[in-house]
């Protein structure tokens, strides 16, 4: 997919760059992002919203992959950015991301984070709960600033990957519940706080969703709520944010819809439900993360040891694992992979790909068909662009991999591989222990 192809040497090439060359230059494990594909995904969202006629913002959910070069791409594509912590905010600001297009999320923003975001003059806070409202208001008042807010509501639509179930009372740590009247009370309270301006409401129903029904249902419930609030509280929502969660194809059997189909379902649902109530059409915001970067990322590993248990299984270990991709261990996520240096050779054996961490659960792929694998082969795991580098750790004191962007036959390093110095960079030996030596 994207700009991946197999070259004349039978090797996987991404963005016009031979993966073998990439591993020689940058080492492994290595995250390789197809920049053209990231930009294509960004444009699919922006173009689909333009076609809808709605006012809109597409905010990239930076939690999926937040580094400075990525923030640059998002800015260049004219999109907004969703951040959920001081670290993501700092990254965006350091990348020169326009503050007015930054939205701040989170169920436990600290006073320090709120101050930092207000000082930076970000575009909007997504307020999550009743504790946050007065704190945000008073910090804004102290700084003599007015802040825009969206109120995050829990619409009672729970998306469970393939299916979605509708619950009257949603048990979630996030947001104001629609069903029990909390959302209504939140609007009532927020409208009395003089340093806050209510732009509208936010709803996020889940992640890796393949169907449009959940989004439609959320739009319908949000619209009913908007109508009620307008007539009873005289508050009109100018913005409806329907969150992220648009699925991608990791393996066969995953059936995401084209971006334009999700967007059309959302814009149609908002149009139907609002215009039938003579409600001035709000702007629509969305927050895709995974679907912007997920399939643009590939992880390259070097194959090390193998362990064959006759009649049982053959383990093939790579030089990374749960430290660069914790998703199989955390969520039982599935991935596909090929031997990047022998991409045209037919499959000859079924192997299971193990990571190098001291933990049996550190398995990346079970039962993968590959050509006969040898030490030194390059394994390319696809669709690792979202929530991999972002969730990487230093477990076992393994250094985080480097990240490169490839495009038009050229590779740029965008995150250096961690050094040994980085690993111990924050370690402190107390004086008394130094003396003991
Ligand atoms: N907006 C909100 C409020 C969210 O909570 C999320 C994801 C998104 C947007 C972006 O969702 P996306 O378009 O990426 O599905 N670590 C997990 C995914 C956690 C998603 C958390 N929230 C994983 O690796 O699958």
Automatic annotation (TrEMBL):
One protein family per Pfam: Orn_DAP_Arg_deC
Residues where N6-(pyridoxal phosphate)lysine is found: 63
Record key words, sorted: Amino-acid biosynthesis, Decarboxylase, Lyase, Lysine biosynthesis, Pyridoxal phosphate
A molecular-function term among this protein's GO annotations: diaminopimelate decarboxylase activity
Keyword check for Amino-acid biosynthesis: yes
Location of the Orn/DAP/Arg decarboxylase 2 C-terminal domain: 32-385
InterPro entries (alphabetical): Ala_racemase/Decarboxylase_C, DAP_deCOOHase_LysA, De-COase2_C, De-COase2_N, Orn/DAP/Arg_de-COase, PLP-binding_barrel
Residues reported in the UniProt entry to bind substrate: 290, 327, 331, 359, 387
Cofactor(s) essential for the protein: pyridoxal 5'-phosphate
Residues noted as binding pyridoxal 5'-phosphate in the record, renumbered to the chain: 245, 287-290, 387
Catalytic reactions of this protein: meso-2,6-diaminopimelate + H(+) = L-lysine + CO2
Family: Belongs to the Orn/Lys/Arg decarboxylase class-II family. LysA subfamily.
Function summary: Specifically catalyzes the decarboxylation of meso-diaminopimelate (meso-DAP) to L-lysine.
Annotated HAMAP family: LysA
Protein name in the entry: Diaminopimelate decarboxylase
Organism: Paenibacillus eucommiae
Gene from which the chain derives: lysA
């Amino acid at each position: 997919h994207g700009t991946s192809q197999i070259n004349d040497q039978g090797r996987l090439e991404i963005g016009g760059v031979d993966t073998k060359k990439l591993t020689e230059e940058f080492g492994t494990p290595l995250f390789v992002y197809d920049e053209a594909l990231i930009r294509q995904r960004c444009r699919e969202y922006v173009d689909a919203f333009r076609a809808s006629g709605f006012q809109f913002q597409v905010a990239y959910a930076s939690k999926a992959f937040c580094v400075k070069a990525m923030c640059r791409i998002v800015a260049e594509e004219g999109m907004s950015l969703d951040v959920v912590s001081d670290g993501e905010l700092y990254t965006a600001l350091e990348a020169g991301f326009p503050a007015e297009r930054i939205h701040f999320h989170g169920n436990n923003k600290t006073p320090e984070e709120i101050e930092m975001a207000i000082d930076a003059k970000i575009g909007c806070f997504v307020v999550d709960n009743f504790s946050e409202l007065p704190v945000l208001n008073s910090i804004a008042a102290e700084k003599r600033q007015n802040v825009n807010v969206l109120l995050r509501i829990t619409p009672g639509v729970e998306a469970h990957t393939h299916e979605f179930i509708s619950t009257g009372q949603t048990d979630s740590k996030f947001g104001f519940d629609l069903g029990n009247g909390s959302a209504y009370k939140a609007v009532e309270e927020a409208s009395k706080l003089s340093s806050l301006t209510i732009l509208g409401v936010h709803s996020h129903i889940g992640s890796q969703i393949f169907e449009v029904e959940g989004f439609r249902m959320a739009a319908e419930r949000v619209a009913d709520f908007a109508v009620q609030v307008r007539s009873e509280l005289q508050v009109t929502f100018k913005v409806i944010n329907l969150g992220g969660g648009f699925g991608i194809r990791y393996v066969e059997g995953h059936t995401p819809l084209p971006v334009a189909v999700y967007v059309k379902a959302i814009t149609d649902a908002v149009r139907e439900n609002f215009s039938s109530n003579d409600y001035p059409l709000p702007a629509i915001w969305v927050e895709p993360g995974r679907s912007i970067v997920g399939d643009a990322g590939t992880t390259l590993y070097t194959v090390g040891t193998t362990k064959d248990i006759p009649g049982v299984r053959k383990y093939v270990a790579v030089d990374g694992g749960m430290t660069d991709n914790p998703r199989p261990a955390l969520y039982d996520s599935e991935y596909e992979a090929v031997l990047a240096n022998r991409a045209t050779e037919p499959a000859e054996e079924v192997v299971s790909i193990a990571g190098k961490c001291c933990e049996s659960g550190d398995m990346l792929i079970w039962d993968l068909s590959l050509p006969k694998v040898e030490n030194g082969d390059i394994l390319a795991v696809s669709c690792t662009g979202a929530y991999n580098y972002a969730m990487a750790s230093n477990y076992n004191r393994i250094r985080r991999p480097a990240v490169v962007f490839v495009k038009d036959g050229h590779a740029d390093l965008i995150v250096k591989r961690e050094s040994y110095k980085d690993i111990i960079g924050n370690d402190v030996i107390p004086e008394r222990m130094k003396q003991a030596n």
